[in-house]
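Support request, please re-run this one:
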Amino acid sequence: MNRLAKAITRASLPALLLLVSSAAVAQTPVPTPGQEQIQTPPAPPLPDLTRLGVAGDNVLALSMDDTIRRALESNNDIEVARGDVRVAEQRLRALYGVYDPVFSVTPSFDQRVTPATSVFSGAGASGRVSTKTFNFNSALSKYFETGGGAYELQFNNARTTTSATNSTLSPYYSSALTLLYTQPLLRNRSIDASRHAIRVQKKVLSQTDADFRRRTIEIISQAQGAYWNLVFALRNQQNQLESLNVSRQNLKNVEAQIAAGTMAPLDRAQVLTDIATREANLLEATQGVTTAENSLKRLLLKDSAAPEWSAQITPTDTPALDMSPVDLDGALEEARQNRPELSRLNLQKEINSIDVQYYRNQTRPEINLTGSVTSSGLAGDQVPCGAAACPAVPSNYQGGYFQSLSNISDFKTREINVGVTISLPLRNRAAKANLATARVQKEQNEASYRSQEQTVAAEVRNAAQAVAIAQKRIVASRLARESAEQQLAGEQKLYNVGRSTTFLLLQRQNELTAARTNELQAETDYSKALADLQRATASTLRANNVTVQSLVEQP
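Re-run finished. Output below.
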């Protein structure tokens, strides 16, 4: 029996081999007539990446320094902030105008004809007295910033012609030079309304200067963020394009294998689906480039009709990784020293101190020292008296206008007055209420400063943590990208020897594309986190070698 089985087995072995060979031939597609001339279908064309309104031959290469410079020179918000400083400066100049000397001139003519009411009126037989007077008065007044005093220098002149028979001079010239001075002794001596307004406006001007610095820091920070967003968008677009080209090459390989009969046609659909997905990702990345580029142009260009709007911006800087740990304590101290918001609140506290000083002064009695000195002169033509005995007229009173001025300089006819005016407010509720309000505002300012200080500290801590996390993300994303590259290379080898499938190969390619995108995003986020930390500590100007000269000028 065993011999018979062995004989059958030995006899059937060639037949079984023939059967297996026939089955293998049956599974291999039999080429049809003319099949050897079939060409591999071409891959789908690349999508049109032309962006509306952007000329491909108009390229604007920008470094980070160029971006910051253009943003500061052309940004409209910077221009508005600079204008705020100028407006505050002019308002301060206007307040100083109260100390400008004021010169006034008052010419006038007066003619009077009055009936006689007394035998001593000099009316004569007509019963009337006619008087014509031409006045030319002038004055120079000024307030003093120190001490709150004020003076007025008056120079009055008159030429009078009269028909009165009892007048010894006609026409005659009268002149007077008067100096008036008022000096506060209590209220308004150390500070008054004008000096209060000026001191407050000086602090407001410093606040606008701090606001300008804050706006400058914000613009630089925005420009940095927009620049790195464009860097990421362009690199991501290139990454998506390379991924699409790899998928297109896969399609060529699959088509060749399908044509050779070593791969099923179903694999073509897999690759075509992958190509369509990658095309959509590429188009989305292209839209991201447009959005990022326009955001940057909005910061750099002053006019919406500027020709640079049609330019294609090409950043020349790339993110640089610094693994140095963040000094949190140093960052917090730098923020407390340099943040314009805290500087502005400190200035607000100083304004409140000025208010308290002023309103406390207004609760005091008003005691003013007043004084005046007048020197007068008189000269004219002696009235003819006929046969009657003429009254004696001193020689220094005989003459014209210049004789009158000469008499002023002699200081022989003079008037000196010195006095004190005292005003005692019985309740003075307005000043007391204003003082109480200023003291309440002092408490509010202290609370506002503490709140802002907490906000600054939180921003610094968040920004420092973001930098530290971004550093770790870059390391992790680089490791993930390197691992994805190794996995794809291994999967490609398995695919080449028939031990893997198209699905697995495409999946590894997707993983590598995502890993590269994550690495690009991590590098971009790190650069943006550094810029945000600079903003939070107000070190943006120093870190980017930007010098902002104070726009405040003394009036």
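Residues 102-184+367-423 form one domain. The beta strands are 59-62, 102-115, 128-143, 150-162, 169-184, 312-315, 366-382, 414-423.
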